[in-house]
Amino acid sequence: MLSILQKYEDGESACFEKIVLDPYARATIGRNGPGLILPEPRKIEQESRFQIPPLRDLVIAEAHIRDLLEKADLGTASKGKSWFERLKIWISSEDCYLRELGVNAVEFQPLQEFDSRNEDEYHWGYMPVNFFSPESSY
Q1: Whole-number Å distance between alpha carbons of 108 and 105
Q2: Which of 65 and 45 is assigned the larger pLDDT?
Q3: Distance CA 67, CA 98 (A)
Q4: Using an 8 Å Cβ cutoff, are 127 and 116 in contact?
Q5: What does 53-122 look like in DSSP terms, one character per residue?
Q6: Closest listed residue to residue 24, CA positions, set 6, 38, 9, 44
Q7: Among residues of the chain, what percentage have pLDDT more than 70?
Q8: How much is the pTM?
Q9: What is the pLDDT of residues 34-43, one digit of tens each?
Q10: d(C-alpha 65, C-alpha 110), whole Å
Q11: Cα–Cα distances in angstroms (integers) from residue 28 to residues 20, 64, 112, in the given order
């Protein structure tokens, strides 16, 4: 809650209050918040991290997570899963066409919380609300 106390020259005062989303929240319920307090992220073991191919061998695709998975046939494996979990399933499946294209790295369009008011409104994440929070609908 943001509170502003305004004092006027005639001695009167007024208090204005507005609920605002914590701009440093690492997760949110939605574009209007509230922000969530999360435990510290677990450490990723060095050997399980993605190994970047040499620069001369990189084939990068820029994509949006929603576009990649919109037509992906994941069957029942994706029921009730988040977009990120579905992406992990798709990338390791036979249906992932990125390997056929020779892609070995993906640059994602923005993944942070953005200002879409409904599912049909779609800005590829370029209407950011919180830079530190992943999009809550994912």
Answers
A1: 10
A2: 65
A3: 13
A4: yes
A5: PPGGG--EEEE-HHHHHHT---GGGGTT--HHHHHHHHHTSTT-TTTTTT--EEEEPP-EEE--SSTT--
A6: 38
A7: 83
A8: 0.64
A9: 888 788 877 7
A10: 9
A11: 12, 20, 10
DSSP character at residue 131: E
Q: Answer yes or no: is pLDDT of 60 > 90.
A: yes
Domain residue limits, the chain: 2-39+52-134
| Tens digits of residue pLDDT in 66-112 | 888 877 777 766 677 888 888 888 888 888 888 889 999 999 888 88
Cβ–Cβ < 8 Å for 85, 78:
yes
| Distance (Å, whole) CA 54 – CA 25 | 35
Q: Assess whether the previous peptide bond of 110 is cis (omega < 30° from 0).
A: no
CA 25 to each of CA 30, 37, 64, 109, 120: distance values in angstroms, whole numbers, following the listed order: 12, 7, 23, 20, 26
- CA-to-CA distance for 119 and 9, rounded, in angstroms? 48
